Amino acid sequence: MSPFLRARRRVAGPADFGVSEPLAGFRRFDASRAIELPNFDALRALSPALVRTLVKDLEVDALASRVCPVLCADNRVVLLALAADVAGDQADELVRRLSTSGYELAEPQRYVVSATMLMAIARGQALGTVAASGSAMEGMQHTTTLAAAFQDMIEWGVDNQASDVHINIFLDAPESEVRFTIAGRYVMPGRFCGISTANLMDMVSVAWMDIRAGNGAVFDPLAEQQGAMSRVVGGRQVLLRWASMAAERGPSICLRLLLRDQIAPQNSLLSLGYLPDQVNQIERAATSEGGTILFAGSVGAGKSTTLATLMAAIPAYRKVMTLEDPVEYLIPRAVQNTIARDVDTLSGSLFATKLMALKRSAMTDVLLGEIRDSETGQAFVDLAGSGISVYSTTHAASALLAGERLASASIGVPRDFLATPGLMKMIVYQVLLPTLCGECALPAASSNSPPAVMLDLIELLFDGDVSTLRFRNPLGCAACRNRYVPDLSGYAGRTVAAHCLEPALVPGYYKALRSANYSVLQTDPDDSAFAVAMKKAFEGTVDPRDIETRFHAFETERRLRQARGV
Fold first, then answer.
1. The domain spanning residue 271 has which CATH number?
2. CB atoms < 10 A from the CB of 497, how many?
3. Distances in whole angstroms, Cα of residue 449 to Cα of each of 221, 319, 438, 538
4. Which of 53, 144, 218, 497 is deepest in the core (most CB within 10 A)?
5. End of a domain among 132, 153, 188?
């Protein structure tokens, strides 16, 4: 039995280790005396060997992610700690409690280890004597395996052009799931089915240790956490933007995959799917300095890609700067800035400092990555009101509702400011639709086409020849078959369907925005994103069923027209 247990005294719990008054009569530890252990090899080389943690003995589980007491083979004790905590109040208090409880402290007394190492040690995965190192090796191999599995997951996502990796952990089930967003679809490849919940939980805990600017020293399944990490895949730097949610069944983690060397598309808005008239509209708006071009749409609608494409085409004689969270595309000639913000603090002072420096940089054009909260809303007001050209994005369900989104309580841009003539030059709402494989798309007369009632409804509602419609071939062909994700067979890329709205050219728009009443506005239905999508359907490039998914059912469209008396 350990000396501590023989003392038969109450053990100090986590609450006893909070930062309070300086420790009376206790000499503070000099951090320069701590020895750094750079890796597990250095840990194993210690003599006498480290045997086991005293985390459970001392009931300091909550402290173990920062400071961990460990029993050596000679019954003395050392402290393993993060660099920021090795000389902190909690470490000093823990040492004092150990000393007064009969434990002898080793010399050196304290070691600095990485967060990843400390987590493995606290779980008992990396300790043991040389004679009994089998379990230690197993623990280390387990940690290594988890790291390799995480890397494999990221590599598969990058190789298959996924925009996001989704890790859904079900704590009430033996297995959990890993999904990917590919071409706008939420899919689960066969190779990632049946993953152990325990292993997946361990994997994300290990991965979190590499997070930068994250809220929380360790992964917490009961908290919302976000941050970022970097990985190398095929020689390319990949930024992983981490966002986790404490869901009912367990944590749900979304990792946005951003290629750090991804250059802004050098093609054109036409190649993205914009119609020639729409390209002319946007380019005309971008020609003059001052005012705002705002891209709206749902998550994953391709807004950032369109915006980067537009910014890359700005003439070289204009100075372009960006303020993003994070930088998603490298824009030629642009001076780009990343502002990382976490859940707990929005890094307001840093954002304000960067914004002030930005305004003093004599730029003509600025990209504000996304307007999503009061901080970015205020930045938009500040920049747009200064007379420079502003380009940004926001989440909204239509071009008309983009102004409502900015004026909402969560963002707080004043309506009168938004209704200032010339301020909002252009609002673009866009949707991404999967494009059919040109080699195997099926005609309307095929057995895999939708029921005749849908074709009749399309013919009734739209001015087009239904015989030109094409539909996805679920089997695919040699050009498009996806053996990993069969749901993607039959497709070949994506295209934009957009609505371009110029507020100055819409009678009554400013009045409607001030009053939040858009019912009196008369807009051309042929300009809507829905109408553009149907134009692409009649060209045989988009499956009409995918249009129903992105917008609404054709039967709903019929009833809407009936309600409007059309």
1. 3.40.50.300
2. 27
3. 45, 51, 16, 14
4. 497
5. 132
Q: Are 89 and 39 in contact (CB under 8 A)?
A: no
Question: For 88-114, b where at least 16 C-beta lie within 10 A, e where not — what string?
Answer: bbbbbbbbebbeebebeebeebbbbbb
Which positions ≥6 away from 566 have C-beta within 8 Å? none
Q: Give every residue of the chain whose pLDDT is below 70, as ranges.
A: 1-27, 62, 115-116, 119-120, 123-145, 264-267, 340-350
At 21 the pLDDT is: 45
Q: How far lies 236's CA from each of 227, 262, 309, in Å?
A: 20, 9, 21
What confidence tens digit (pLDDT) does each residue in 189-233 have? 877 887 888 888 888 988 898 887 777 778 888 889 988 888 888
User: What three-state secondary structure class fits 50?
Assistant: strand
How many residues make up the chain in this entry?
566
Question: How many angstroms separate the CA atoms of 337 and 316, rounded?
Answer: 19
Quick check: 228 and 268 in contact, CB under 8 A?
no
Pair 72, 51: CB distance under 8 Å: yes
d(CA 392, CA 369): 6
Residues 360 and 479 grouped into a single domain: no
Q: Which of 266, 382, 360 is nearest to 313 (CA)?
A: 266
Integer CA distances (angstroms), 86 to 30, 38, 474, 510, in order: 9, 15, 59, 60
Question: Are both 253 and 273 inside the same structural domain?
Answer: no
Indicate the pairing of strand 195-196 with strand 225-233: unpaired
Range of the domain at 297: 262-432+496-523
- Which residue, among 94, 122, 124, has the nearest Cα to 110 in the 3D structure? 94
Parallel, antiparallel or unpaired: strands 424-436 and 442-443: unpaired
Q: What are phi and psi of 206, to 5 degrees?
A: -65, -45
Any idea which residue has 């920062």 for tokens?
66
CA distance 315 to 91: 58
Picking from 562, 448, 495, the residue whose alpha carbon sits closest to that of residue 183 is 495
The counts of H helices and E strands in the chain are 19, 20
Boundary of a domain, candidates 226, 259, 292: 259
Q: Model pTM?
A: 0.70
User: CA 342, CA 211: separation in Å to the nearest integer?
Assistant: 11
Question: What amino acid is encoded at 424 in this protein?
Answer: M
What average pLDDT does the chain have?
84
The three-state secondary structure class of 244 is strand
Would residue 361 count as lying in a domain? Answer: yes
CA distance 470 to 433: 14
Same domain, 185 and 66: no
Q: Which pLDDT score, from 0 to 100, does residue 266 have?
A: 63
SS3 content of the chain, % helix, strand, coil (to 5): 35, 25, 40
- Whether the CB-CB separation of 485 and 410 falls below 8 Å is answered with no
DSSP per position, 179-236: EEEETTEEE--GGGSSEEHHHHHHHHHHHHTT-BS-SSSS--TTS-EEEEEEEEETTE
CB atoms within 10 A of CB 353: 12
What is the amino acid identity at position 239? L
